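Working notes for the structural subgroup meeting. M.R. asked for a predicted model of this chain before we commit to crystallization trials. I am recording the input and output together here so anyone reviewing the notebook later can reproduce the run.

Input as submitted:
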Amino acid sequence: WNLTDEGTLGAQQRKHHHQIKRQTGSKEDIFREVLQSSDHAVSEHRARRETINEKLKMESQERRQGQERM
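Returned structure, recorded in token form:
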């Protein structure tokens, strides 16, 4: 071994460590994105459900008003 080989080996080890660390960060980023996506999907589902409930209430009121007129 000479100093150049050790320097290169050390650089390779640091690069490998950086890649591992970056992969870990990427997994955390992906997990965070999945959670955000899930939260967004839940919010969209809730909004659709509320819209449907409001529409059903309006239709029910219109039917009652139509029956009262008869």
